[in-house]
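pls ignore typos typing on phone
zinc ion + seq
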Amino acid sequence: MELIILVFLIMLFLSIGSLSSVVIHRLILMEFTDTRLNLFTPRSHCPECKKSISLINLIPLFGFLIQKGKCVNCKVAISYKYPLHEFIHLVSGLSIYFLFNINLFSILIYILFTIFYILFVCDIEKFYIPFYLNLSISIIGVSGAYYGNLFNIDTLNLLNTSQFELSLYGFIVGYSILWLINFFFKFLKKQDGIGGGDFLLLGGIGSLVGPISLAPVIFIGSLATLFVGLIGKYDLKKELPLGSGFIIGLLIYLLIKFFELSLFGLVL
Ligand SMILES: [Zn+2]
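k done
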């Protein structure tokens, strides 16, 4: 029984990884080049010769191996990103399964992981944070706190506030901190310093972890943004993928929290 579940999960995670890479690819195309495209049509095809990809070759990971990383028709190399997205989804999904088993909490964590993953890649590649996916994080954060303390994460319970209120405060604090920084930046430099998607993203992260935990997330996230800016080929004077930095910040913060590691002698 265990084995059947495991095989099923492996196929499921690979498929969701494959779906994510299609969503990432199409969201970017829809935003920047072809507004007629949508998420479901046309069928997956080779971006070079436009030939539809046969069902067998669409099988995640294995399709890439069967085709030896090349389009069967025109032999142009398929981006390594597709199997990479699938592999990361597989590893993350299995980790969540082994840590938390299958329950409402782990399913929500995996859904959040998938949404964050898509936002992360879109931001890294194009400084683009798709609005509805971004918004869905705040909705999951606030409703999760309302319905069942799903993200009972904030360390201090200030003045007996409920999880729901903490989540709302987290959203407000996250959103307004960046909005204020941008406001002053705009006042001084007469142009936006931070993309609008970043406000909502940090608001969403705040709704998940609460206002207090936002501080370490922002701190680690800012360092991560700088790090990404340095190793990626970004022009440091122009623009950095701040949203992606915050997502890394959140991930590191949650790992520290979960494994009760200490950072600079402090347990966060
Ligand atoms: Zn081709």
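The first helix runs from residue 2 to 32. DSSP finds nine helices and no strands in the chain. more later
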